[in-house]
Design goal:
The complex is a heterotrimer. By secondary structure, chain A is α/β, with parallel strands linked by helices. In chain A, 33% of the residues lie in helices and 24% in strands. Chain A starts with 5 loop residues before the first strand and ends with a helix. In chain B, strands 2-1-3-4 form a four-stranded mixed sheet, with helices on both faces. Chain B starts with a helix and ends in a 6-residue tail after the last helix. Chain C has two domains: 242 residues, no CATH class; 99 residues, abc type-2 transporter like domain (abc type-2 transporter like fold, 3-Layer(aba) Sandwich). In chain C, 66% of the residues lie in helices and 9% in strands. In chain C, strand 1, helix 3 and strand 2 form a beta-alpha-beta unit. In chain C, helix 8 runs antiparallel to helix 12. The longest helix of chain C is centred in the middle third of the chain and has 30 residues. The chains are: A alpha/beta, B alpha/beta, C alpha/beta. Chains in contact: A-B, A-C, B-C. Chains B and C meet through helix 2, strand 4, helix 6, strand 5 and helix 7 of B and helix 2, helix 5, strand 4, helix 6 and strand 5 of C. Strand 4 of chain B pairs parallel with strand 5 of chain C, so a sheet runs across the interface. Chain A: This is ABC transporter ATP-binding protein. Chain A: Keywords: ATP-binding, Nucleotide-binding. Chain A: It holds the Pfam family ABC_tran.
Chain lengths: 587, 376, 370
């Protein structure tokens, strides 16, 4: 086709595998991207999305095949392409010692954006990213999500002929994500911009004109979101769990029957599921265990899950088995006589004259899954760091398992597990070495350590010899979880554990969490995937350091107003915007 | 690529590098404070010149002649004699490090003298061989005077012929001050240090923090990245050079016999070479720890040890001398010492400048190549 | 008992992790060992004040028997090499300026005649003073040769000094310079490694992960200090072996005492390094702070120039410099064979530095806000 933005034919690219041999990242891939459209690349970790984008950007030389970008052979003249495109890498390297404004200026200068265009453009970008207040702040002092937004703003300082976005919304909150997409879409509509975006959010892919589903370096399926959705037509249902049964419990049970159920997720008090096209009716009824189910409309995520399950036969992404340990204090969360395991009263944290956490109070009961939600910079990570004893509180009291971990004896920390943002592991060390170290640090040794490490490797399906720094994001997360759980903690803190993780890995993750909660482990989790709030017993929404709402997912949805429907994402945006409006009115 | 684009991008990148340089105090501490500390230490702290070396004198013979001989030591400004009773006391003091040498005048000194040649024993602590050698020289000189007098008084021996007398003149460094050659060398050391410690981290840091990927996919050319990284550190280096020259002139009163513009020009040329070397190491190593180690090993340490800064290259084995000739620092070291102490000696200026220019061109070319915009 | 074992096992896990991190890949292993080897060879061959080769030019206007004999004894000594024979005094500047000759001898026309008539005959020596140490050494050598010539002419001096140098019979500067490197060279890496160890974990986010484990600051401190100390002592051993066997400088003291000294010295260095590490926010800062203090530590250690040649103020400052005492300790144990009684005082400042910096570093682990 003439005038195509990107034409790839028989594209190949291999990398040296860590243990010798080679790894095929892109395997005879052919693809055409039409101009003036939004094109999405979706696929699990390691599908080759980043490699493909880097090749289009002229950063990687193809091992074979032909790749033309904007009519230029990118292999022969990468600079010509780079002069005309904008690219946002997955890990956008901001200059952390430069301020927000200086980072923007740098990219504007490099792209030679005329001075008179800058004013309105910067205003728009800063408004979209909600960073107008922070222009003087060093980029290194921004929260993770704000850095991501600034990266996007730097990429969008000019209107290129082709925009490449590699997972632009990882770690970005729903409000910013909405704004971010609004501006990208506006650029497409107003300027006829061509955009290729790789994403793990299916609702984002659903907004694109074309979606390419990738797996193992190949294109699995291509088409409009509608065409792809048609593949699951008639296979999507919603099941309502019996009273007293948490949807996640039903969902976990359904996922345990992959021969009849493709996918299941809790949603608005029910469980949305996709059944296998040739599902045996009796087996299906057994998996549903009496829950009433009704047909529902299909979504892109349903189609994606079906495609991947059919392609992989579920072998590659084996779901970790739920934890079957029975802890000492398995207590039902709804028991009113139980005393809280975490209690926070009037917690305040200030950095200079900036209040990161303002007078926050909440309690978490043993065995509860407690979700802490909020926009970027709301104070979630600060709250976490105070709870884990990494940061002293400015005011207020906090108790974790009856103690303040900041001042408690070191042994008290053995009762908690902590998975930090970005899954901080020793990248130089192998998977086994990481596990052995953390096990040892938690006081495991000898046979007990070996047994635990072996169990963790099996349970999380990890290759013990792999170098942990080179693992795909999904596996890094599994390893981080495995290290956090080695010592069987009573309380588990998880800071954005599903950021940058594909839907398959997220299912696996939540199944593990459901299992742990069932075994009485208390879980505190932050996430930007609002549908994941559905797995929680209770959630709290924080913004600008303040606690806005706290309650069960249903209570939170109710508070947002019935017009928001069963969609948690909409409920979240509603509550935060309402609070912001009230705050502004008060000022 | 258009010239306007080149200038715009270069300016933007230079501004960015300058800001990063200024924001992190540690850069300034190493770039500006460390040179000041080094200037002061080299100027005031380090001295090879022995003063008031403590020397034990053990008089086992108390004759007039022996006392006369020992008195010669008191006259020396380099030596401060301490009288001790016996060798045991002297040896103990030497082991304890209280004294540096022992002079023993033996029992039979007078008898030996009568026979025409007397011996005294000088025991030195060879652990500090430099000081020991110097003390030996001073003792020789101090004893020569009284005995020459005595010889005269005795009417001398039958001198059929005269003796050879050395009339010594030291060019360039007439007073023989060690600061005169340490301070020009310090210029080399400081300019090397900025390259080895500061620019060697620059590209490696960007690789480590992942900031290059996004920059690569812009109209930026590798040469622009390289020049922008060099520019702010050239300024820092120029400030250091200025401080060195001022200190040399006004603080240490080292002569500057060559012309100032030439001294400045060749110093800036060497600065460019030093910074480019650091940058190349940084671009190749891709990790800050490795880069700083390599820079220390191939740039700073050799400049300190093998450039002829303190240790004269005439004394080293041929292989080491050949290696030293590969170092840009060696060529600059010879040149700057000549420029300070001897003057504008053109054959040296031209040859060294040519060598340094070739180094600069080659290093910058290779750095550009190492910054070819690819993630392969 | 069981508690103590568990406590040690936790540290062991941390130590094992640190070692794996340090020695995991060949390139990082090489970075730990190659610099030590290369630098000790470089220093061994390059660092010498002993003048072994003096190129000289001669302007012999006398051309008599006496001047010929003088030049013959110069040329025969092995140190002096004649690179130019000049015809007139104007040529002297060229050979000296270019550095072709380190000194020029000018023998006046009446040299022979003066000597024959019993008068003193001046021999002009013009030295290239650009390196004053070299010039002084060359002058001393010339004086020795001329002295010998005079003796041969029947001018025996009245008093002869019999020199005996303890510990270094030939007064070789290599003997003086090399043994202290056992402490000095490994210090650079010990400081750098320990400075980076916490800074790297902070930059990569693993330090938080470490702090939420039940490890106490004391355990983290031990776990961080021991591997770095091991690397430092390993490097010292490498340098020690090179000096002992390659350069053949005899060790007279007790190996046991040497290592006791090295251990205390390395402990102090690690203390400083970890304190830097705890203060630094990034690896870059950790490295730069290290460079900032390494240079003064080296210069004020007595390694290159004697401490007592320094102004009093600086001499006081050196008491805070562990390298000063490391250098002194190694030098004296290695060359003098000093015993614990003689060098015991060197341990005090070393242990003081360790006792100050290590608790400071441990306290900063938790209290340094990022």
């Amino acid at each position: 086709m003439t005038g195509a933005t990107v034409v790839a034919e028989g594209l190949q690219r291999s990398f040296e595998a860590p243990g010798g041999g080679s790894l095929r990242a892109i395997d005879t891939l052919s693809l055409t991207v039409r101009p003036g459209e939004l094109t999405a690349l979706v696929g699990p970790d390691g599908a080759g999305k980043t490699t493909l984008l880097r090749m289009i950007a002229g950063l990687l030389t193809p091992g074979g095949g032909r790749l033309e970008v904007l009519g230029t052979d990118v292999t022969r003249d990468p600079q010509r392409v780079q002069d005309r495109i904008s690219y946002m890498p997955q890990r956008f390297g901001l200059y952390e010692d430069l301020s927000v404004q200086e980072n923007l200026d740098l990219y504007a200068d490099l792209h030679r954006v005329p001075q008179d265009e800058r004013g309105p453009r910067f205003t728009r970008l800063l408004k979209m990213t909600d960073m107008a207040r922070f222009t003087a702040r060093p980029a290194g002092k921004l929260s993770g999500g704000m850095k991501q937004k600034l990266g996007l703003a730097c990429t969008l300082v000019r209107a290129p002929e082709l925009l490449l976005l590699d997972e632009p919304s990882v770690g970005v909150d729903p409000l910013s994500r909405r704004d971010l997409w609004a501006i990208v879409q506006q650029l497409v509509e107003d300027d006829g911009l061509s955009v290729i975006v790789s994403t793990a959010y299916m609702d984002e892919a659903a907004r694109c004109a074309q979606v390419h589903v990738m797996n193992h370096g190949r294109i699995l399926a291509s088409g409009t979101p509608k065409a792809l959705c048609a593949r699951v037509q008639g296979l999507t249902f919603a099941a309502v769990p019996p009273a007293g049964v948490h949807p996640r419990v039903l969902q976990a049970r359904m996922l345990a029957a992959p021969e009849v159920i493709v996918d299941a997720t809790p949603h608005g008090g029910a469980v949305h599921y996709v059944r296998q096209p040739q599902a045996d009716a009796a087996r299906l009824a057994e998996a549903l265990d009496g829950a009433a189910s009704a047909p529902r409309g299909e979504g892109l995520e349903d189609a994606f899950m079906l495609l991947l399950r059919q392609h992989d036969n579920g072998t590659h992404h084996a779901l970790p088995e739920p934890d079957e340990r029975t802890p000492a204090s398995a207590v039902a969360p709804d028991n009113p006589n139980v005393s809280p395991i975490i209690s926070v009263r009037n917690l305040v944290r200030r950095f200079g004259d900036f209040t990161a956490v303002a007078s926050t109070s909440f309690e978490v009961l043993p065995g509860e899954i407690f979700g802490l939600l909020g926009p970027n910079g709301a104070g979630k990570t600060t709250t976490f760091r105070m709870l884990c004893g990494l940061l002293p509180a400015t005011e207020g009291q906090l108790e974790v398992a009856g103690r303040d971990l900041r001042t408690a004896r070191a042994r008290a920390r053995a009762r908690i597990g902590y998975v930090a943002q970005k899954f901080s592991l020793y990248g130089n060390l192998s998977v086994r070495e990481n596990l052995e170290f953390f096990g040892g640090a938690y006081g495991l040794r000898g046979r007990a350590l070996r047994t635990q490490v072996r169990a963790a490797l099996e349970r999380f399906d990890l290759d013990p010899t792999a170098r942990s720094g080179e693992l795909p994001a999904g596996y890094k997360q599994r390893l981080a979880m495995a290290t956090g759980l080695l010592h069987a903690p009573q309380i588990l803190f998880l800071d954005e554990p599903t950021s940058g993780i594909d839907p398959l890995a997220r299912r696996a993750f939540w199944r593990t969490i459901t299992g742990l909660a069932g075994a009485g482990v208390t879980i505190i989790v932050t996430t930007h995937f609002m549908e994941e709030a559905e797995y929680c017993d209770r959630i709290a929404i924080q913004d600008a350091g303040e606690m806005l709402v706290i309650g069960t997912p249903q209570q939170v949805r109710d508070k947002a107003g019935a017009d928001r429907g069963t969609d948690m994402n909409a409920a979240f945006i509603g509550i935060v915007e309402q609070a912001r409006a009230t705050r502004e009115a008060a000022v | 690529m258009s010239a306007v684009g080149f200038i715009t991008r270069l300016r933007a990148l230079t501004r960015k590098e300058s800001r990063q340089l200024l924001r992190d105090r540690s850069n300034l501490l190493v770039g500006l404070l460390l040179p000041v500390v080094l200037i002061l230490l080299f100027g005031y702290g380090l001295s090879f010149d022995v003063k008031d070396a403590r020397i034990a004198v053990v008089m086992q013979n108390n004759s007039q002649a022996a006392r006369e001989a020992a008195m010669g030591l008191t006259g020396s400004s380099y030596l401060s004699p301490v009288w001790m009773h016996d060798m045991r006391e002297a040896e103990a003091a030497m082991i304890a490090g209280d004294i540096d040498a022992t002079l023993r005048v033996p029992h039979d000194f007078l008898r030996q003298l009568a026979l025409g040649e007397a011996h005294v024993q000088l025991i030195l602590n060879g652990v500090d061989s430099t000081t020991a050698s110097a003390i030996e020289g001073y003792v020789n000189g101090a004893l020569a005077v009284p005995f020459a007098k005595r010889l005269q008084r005795m009417g001398g021996k039958s001198a059929e012929s005269g003796s050879v007398v050395i009339v010594q003149r030291s060019w360039f460094n007439e007073p023989g001050e060690s600061t005169w050659f340490l301070v020009p060398g310090l210029v080399v050391l400081i300019l090397t240090l900025i390259g080895a410690f500061l620019t060697s981290l620059l590209v490696a840091r960007e690789w480590e923090r992942g900031t290059l990927e996004a920059i690569f996919v812009t109209p930026v050319r590798p040469l622009e990245l390289v020049l922008a990284k060099l520019a702010p550190y050239m300024v820092i280096g120029a400030i250091d050079l200025g401080m060195c020259l001022l200190a040399a002139r006004w603080l240490f009163e080292v002569p500057m016999r060559g012309s100032l513009p030439i001294i400045i020009a060749v110093s800036l040329l060497y600065l460019l070479v030093s910074l480019s070397l650091g940058l190349l190491i940084s671009a190749l190593a891709r990790n800050q720890f490795a880069a700083s180690q390599i820079a220390l090993l191939v740039s700073f340490m050799p400049a300190l040890m093998l450039s002829g800064f303190v240790f004269d290259l005439r004394n080293v084995p041929v292989v080491i001398r050949a290696i030293s000739q590969l170092l840009p620092a060696t060529h600059f070291m010879g040149l700057i010492k000549t420029l300070f102490m001897a003057g504008d000696y053109w054959p040296d200026i031209l040859r060294s400048s040519a060598i340094l220019s070739i180094y600069a061109a080659v290093l910058i070319t290779f750095t550009c190549r190492a910054l070819r915009k690819t993630m392969d | 008992m069981q508690d103590a074992l568990a406590w040690l096992a936790q540290i062991a896990a941390l130590i094992r992790k640190e070692f794996r991190d340090l020695f995991k890949d060949p390139s990082s292993r090489a970075l730990l060992l190659v610099p030590a080897i290369l630098q000790s060879l470089l220093f061994g061959y390059g660092a010498t004040y002993d003048l072994t080769h003096v190129p000289y030019a001669v302007l012999d206007q006398s051309r008599g028997a006496a001047s010929t004999r003088l030049l013959a004894s110069l040329d025969g000594g092995g140190v002096f090499t004649r690179v130019a024979t000049l015809d007139n005094a104007r040529q002297i500047a060229a050979v000296i300026d270019s550095g072709d000759a380190l000194l020029a001898l000018a023998i006046p026309a009446d040299f022979e005649a003066r000597l024959a008539t019993g008068r003193d005959a001046p021999l002009q020596v013009i030295l290239d003073g650009r390196n004053s140490a070299t010039a002084a050494a060359a002058a001393a050598q010339i004086a020795a040769v001329v002295g010998a010539v005079n003796v041969a002419r029947g001018h025996a001096p009245l008093v002869t000094i019999d020199r005996r140098a303890w510990f270094n019979p030939n007064l070789e500067s290599r003997w003086n310079l090399m043994p202290p490197l056992i402490a000095a060279l490994s210090m650079i890496q010990t400081l750098l490694l320990s400075a980076l160890s916490v800074a790297r974990e902070r930059e990569q986010g693993t330090f938080d992960q470490l702090l939420v484990t039940p490890l106490t600051p004391l355990q983290i401190l031990i776990g961080k200090a021991l591997p770095t100390m091991t690397v430092g002592i390993l490097q010292s051993t490498l340098i020690f072996l090179i000096i002992l066997f390659w350069f053949g400088i005899p060790m007279v003291g007790s190996v046991w005492l040497l290592y006791l000294g090295l251990a205390s010295f390395t402990l102090a260095s690690v203390g400083i390094g970890l304190s830097i590490s705890a203060v630094a926010l990034t690896m870059q800062q950790a490295m730069l702070y290290t460079f900032l203090i390494v240079m003064p530590l080296m210069l004020l250690s007595g390694l290159l120039t004697p401490i007592r040649n320094m102004p009093q103020v600086l001499q006081w400052l050196t008491y805070a410099n562990p390298l000063r005492f490391g250098v002194d300790l190694v030098r004296r144990v290695y060359l003098e064979g000093a015993g614990l009684a003689e060098v015991g005082a060197d341990f005090v400042p070393l242990l003081c530095v360790a006792a100050l910096t290590l608790p400071l570093a441990a306290w900063l682990f938790r209290h340094r806000l990022s």
